[in-house]
Amino acid sequence: MECLQRGALPYDHSKARKIRIKVPSYALINGELCRKGFMTPWLKCVDQAKGMDALQEEHAIQAGAYDGAQALTSKVLRMGIYWPIVHQDALGVTRKCGECQSYAPVQANPSLLLHNISNPWPFYQWGIDIVGPFPEAPGKLKYMVVAVE
Fold first, then answer.
1. In the chain, N or C: fewer CB atoms in 10 Å?
2. Rounded distance, CA 84 to CA 88, Å?
């Protein structure tokens, strides 16, 4: 807000650079800090406590539509409010909700990293056999090779 009001920047060069990059996305409207939305008009910037109250309220209003953190974040942003860690807070709310966890999609990732199993003797676990001779018929084969892993 100080940068928008007075143009004040911190003395640290890296922090000042970050603020200069982010400032064009913000504006002071009627004395309140607002941020440009991607698909929405200006979003009112609130502190984390007010944002969490809005998240809890929106999550309670869903009434059985356990959509997950991304849907909850977009609903709160459509309400016209913003704080920097809105998605992380929505993720925390949905992780604490038992119903959201029971309706969440099952992860297909393995719980542990996969490990290669090397055999000391190649083909030790394989079985290869030749079956035959079969009765001869025109155009048919006399023997068959069967391989089993």
1. C
2. 9
- Long-range contacts from 54-60, C-beta under 8 angstroms, 24+ separation: 54/79, 54/81, 55/86, 55/89, 55/90, 55/93, 56/93, 59/93, 59/94, 59/97
- How confident is the model over 76-119, as pLDDT tens digits? 888 889 998 999 999 998 888 877 777 766 777 777 787 777 76
Residue holding tokens 């940068």?
Answer: 3
Measured CA to CA, the distance from residue 16 to residue 23 in angstroms comes to: 10
> What pLDDT, in 10s, does the model give residues 49-71?
999 998 888 888 765 566 778 88
User: Could you tell me the residue ranges of all domains in the chain?
Assistant: 1-36, 46-103
Q: Rg for the chain (alpha carbons), in Å?
A: 31
Q: At what angle do helices 69-78 and 48-61 cross, to 10 degrees?
A: 110
Interacting residues of 65 by C-beta distance below 8 A, sequence separation 6+: 71
Query: Please, which residues bridge with residue 146 across strands?
Result: 129
